[in-house]
Structure formats: C-alpha cells, structure tokens
Design a protein that fits this description.
Helices cover about 50% and strands about 20% of the residues. The protein has about 525 residues and is α+β, with helices and mostly antiparallel strands. Strand 10 and strand 11 form a beta hairpin. The mean pLDDT is about 90.
C-alpha cells in the first residue's frame, strides 16, 4: 500500500531556492510540452529524447515529465463517462425545475417567474451544449482541453484579477521524481540524514547548470519533518543491511520513494510517497467473513456511525463519531479530520477486538443542484476522503475489509431496527451494512407489510383516479402516473421480485411520525 507524507523545505537559503524555482519552471514546461505532443500522437520513446535535449534535463527528469503527462491523459479518459453522467443528471434536474415552475407546482422565492425561467433555460442550453461536446470527445477517443495552473485561475487571469507573474507561478510550481531501489531510493531528489545534526536534508539534482554528460550538482535544503512520523521517514530513508561481501563489506538495500515538490504561498512542500507492508486485506464480494466480531460503518459528511455485531448478525453496541467541521472546512483540513476520526474509530474497534469491517462501496455521482450549499453538503468527495482514511488504516492494522452495496441501508435501518434497538438512523444503517457483509437478507416486517397493503396501495389507487385530465396529459403527470403504476406492480408482485423493490416503495411512500407509520406525499 502506498503512503504519502508531507514535509516542508526550510527556505532560509534564498540563492539555492531561486535555482530550485528555475528547475521547477523548466520541469513544468517540459511536462506541458510532453502532454501536447502525446495528444498529437507522438510516441513516448522519441518524446523522452526530444524533451531531454530541448529542456536540458537529464533522462530521468525527462521520463518523469512524460510519465506525468501520460497519467493526466489516462485519468481524463477514465473520468469522461462520469462527467457525461453528471451533466445528464444536471440536465434532468434543470428540466424538471422548468416544468414545475411552468405548471405552477413551484414558485420562485427571490426573483420573478419570468427571470427565473429565463435563467434556467440559459442553464439548460449551456448544459446541453456541454453534453454534446463531452459525448463527441468520447466517440472520437479524445479528451477535453486541460488547463495547467487551474481553470478557475485561468479565468481570473482573463478578468485581470491575478497578474501575469502570478499566473506563471501557478503553472510552474511542481517538480516530480520517481523512486528507484537501485539508485539509493531516488536518484534526482534524495533524502539524506545527518547523524551529527540529527537533521534530514533534501538533495535535488540540478542539470540546468551543466552541459553534456557531466554529473549534475545538487541543491541542498533542510527538510522539516513533523515529529509524528520522524521515525517512519528514518526507516524509509536509511538503508537496510542484507548481507556481507567476500571482502567483509556490508551489502545495503534501499527502499524506493517518490518525491513531488509543490510550491504554494511561497512555501515548498515535499510529498514523500513510499510502499508500506500491510497485514490486512480487502475481501471479494463472495468471500465470507470468518471473524467472531464484525463492525458495520456508515459514513456521512458530518458523522460516522459504527455498529458492532456478532457473526450471527446480533447487535452488541453502536456508537457515532461526529465531525461537523467536514461540512465547511477546506480540503487540507478535511484530510486532517478524516485521519483523526479514523484513528478514534480504530481505537474503539480494537477495544472490542473486532476482526473485520464492512463499509459502503461508494461511487462518485455528480448529481448537483443550483444551490451551492446543497452541492457542498451532498458532494461525494468528502465521504470518499473519510472512507479512504478508514480503509487505509484498517488494512494497515490487519483488519479484513469488505465493501457492500449501500442500497436502502438507511431505509431498512430506519423502518426495521431504529425503534427496535433504540438506534439513530445512521447507527441502524451501519448495523444493516454489517449484516449485509455477513450475507444476511433483510426481510420486510409484517407490520410494515400490512401498512403497505392497507394504507399505501389504496392511497396510490385513489391518487391515480383523482388526477385531472390536464395533469394526466402533462409531461410531469405522465411520469408521475408511470412511477405510481410501477410501485403498484411492485406491491402486487413483491414475492416474485427482490425485496429491494418493495423497500423502494416503502422509502417513497411511508414516513415515521410520533413512532407511527404514515403516508407521505408522492
């Protein structure tokens, strides 16, 4: 498993720092050049030679620049279907809003109806144009334009909000060097440890000041390593003695580590990436959990619910870990909070001697609205960041981990287990997740089944019968009738189909108020 630690360069030596900034600018220029040539179809082997000659970089820097460009192209191709799906979701939601305002189902609160419809129509037209462009890229096997330095910063530069020098700094603030076991861990950017000073130093090869095949001089900086992972960096950087030669010389073996330097707010951050040995593993969907105690984990943007259960599916205890800051803090702070919450969760699991974890298999879906605050709260990246922190720590500490489909876990937990065990909705969902990981099916209780047959079914039939002709013929009315017809069919044939179909009907039609099941608006 790969782990990344972030350190800081001591910027006391301004002369050396100026040379490093120059090297960063040249490397980023080589990176952009490599990207453009690869998009045009040039082969990577020939490109490495031309990049090395054109930008006066050694072969390894040239290879790293080309490799980074290839990574951008491959990631853009992988993200293209997700972007198309996200745009289509926005088109669907915007079209529904326009129809609701036109039919009088909704009324705008802040602006007149005419202005609201005009704005939504302009948004719909823009989204449809964007969809057609993305679909064409997918058909032609190409990628959308990539802006080095950030699209937001690019538009700020066009508006004159940032200067030309600031824009150049944003496009030339990175230097990458991959690790190599045979080159003492890393050839171009190497971390060394001074035993006398008990201090880490970063040595950066600078090929810009030499010509031909001469050895590049090295820029030397103090590396400020946080105390919490000082010992871990020492183990990675210092060599391991693996044997002795015939001449009684020790044979040393180095661990490879990649380094990426990033300049932000006039500070240079060092991202050190290396492999660590893990003792846990991720189970496949068909593998059974053998542990006596299992933890189901429900991840939300403001809290993480954990339920402890036996392998027979019986609840032992549930606990909620709150993280309300995740709703509004920036990305770096979110990463810190995710790590802290994951640490607290595993201390709790270790106290129970839990051996396996079941967690949701979250997939990113960009189904956004026009409300900025709503978009920030429902965005999947925050949940994914929290989930990744839990997964990485779990594998590191030897837990067996299983991912399950999160469909209807909150619905089942709310209607089936929340009142029975006195759990919150999220704790009940975590309990359902744990049971699903153990292979249990969630049958519908007789009380809820009776409510579906005696309350929901007659209500749906009466709604369909009382609809006016104008509403029946409208686009929204047709979709509504079709959806309610589908729910009635699911009620009639629930024994023949998967139980999730009936749980979907329960989710859409029933609500718990004052500990009683009541019909809600459909």
């Amino acid at each position: 498993m790969k782990v990344t630690k972030i350190c800081l360069l001591d910027d006391g030596n301004t002369v050396e720092l100026e040379k490093l900034n120059r090297l960063m600018a040249v490397f980023c220029a080589a990176w952009r050049y490599s990207f453009n040539r690869l998009v045009e179809g040039e082969q990577s082997g020939r490109l490495i030679k031309s990049v090395s000659a054109l930008f006066h970089l050694n072969k390894r820097y040239a290879e790293d620049a080309v490799m980074q460009a290839q990574a951008i192209i491959s990631s853009q191709k992988e993200l293209l279907p997700l972007r198309i799906e996200g745009v289509r979701g926005k088109i669907k939601k915007t079209s529904r809003k326009i129809e609701d305002y036109q039919t009088g189902k909704k009324r705008p609160k802040k602006v007149p109806l005419e202005i609201c419809l005009k704005g939504l129509s302009a948004r719909l037209e823009k989204l449809q144009e964007k969809e057609s462009i993305l679909v064409k890229h997918k058909e032609d096997q190409t990628i959308p334009p990539v802006v080095f330095g950030g699209r937001k910063n690019f538009y700020e530069r066009l508006k004159g909000k940032i200067s030309r020098d600031e824009w150049k700094n944003l496009r030339s603030n990175t230097l990458y060097s991959r690790g190599d076991k045979s080159k003492k861990g890393n050839l171009n950017t190497r971390i060394v440890f001074d035993d006398l000073e008990q201090q880490f130093y970063l040595e950066v090869a600078n090929p810009l000041v030499v010509e031909g095949r001469k050895k590049s001089p090295r820029l030397r900086f103090k590396l400020l390593v946080p105390d919490k992972f000082f010992n871990e960096i020492v183990e990675i950087v210092l060599p391991n003695e693996v044997g002795v030669t015939s001449k009684k010389k020790t044979i040393e073996e180095y661990n490879p580590y990649s380094i990426e330097l990033k300049r932000k707010n006039n500070k240079v951050y060092v991202h050190i990436t290396y492999d660590v040995v893990v003792h846990g593993s991720i189970l496949n969907w068909n593998e059974k959990i053998q542990s006596d105690l299992v933890a189901g984990i429900d991840v939300n943007i403001d809290r993480v619910a954990v339920s402890i259960l036996t392998k027979q599916g019986n609840l032992l205890e549930a606990k909620t870990f709150y993280c309300h800051e995740m709703e509004y803090v920036k990305s770096n702070r979110r990463s810190t909070i995710s790590g802290e919450i994951a640490k607290d969760i595993f201390q709790y699991l270790l106290s129970w001697n839990v051996g396996a974890i079941v967690i949701e298999d979250i997939t990113l879906k960009h189904d956004h609205d026009t409300n900025k605050r709503f978009n920030r709260l429902v965005h999947s990246f925050a949940k994914t960041k929290m989930q990744k922190a839990i997964i990485s720590r779990g594998i590191k500490f030897g837990f067996k981990l299983k991912k399950v489909n999160p469909a209807y876990t909150s619905v089942i937990g709310r209607f089936k287990y929340s009142e029975k065990y006195g759990l919150s909705v999220h704790e009940a969902a975590a309990f359902v997740i744990g049971r699903r990981g153990l292979g249990f099916d969630e049958k519908i209780p007789h009380e809820i089944l009776n409510q579906v047959c005696t309350l929901v079914k007659p209500k749906l039939i009466s709604i369909l019968g009382s609809m006016e002709e104008s509403e029946k013929n409208s686009k929204n009315g047709i979709q509504r009738r079709k959806y309610m017809g589908m729910m009635l069919r699911n009620i009639e044939t629930f024994k023949e189909n998967h139980c999730w179909k009936l749980w979907n009907v329960i989710h859409k039609t029933l609500i718990i108020k004052n500990q009683e099941l009541q019909f809600k608006e459909v």
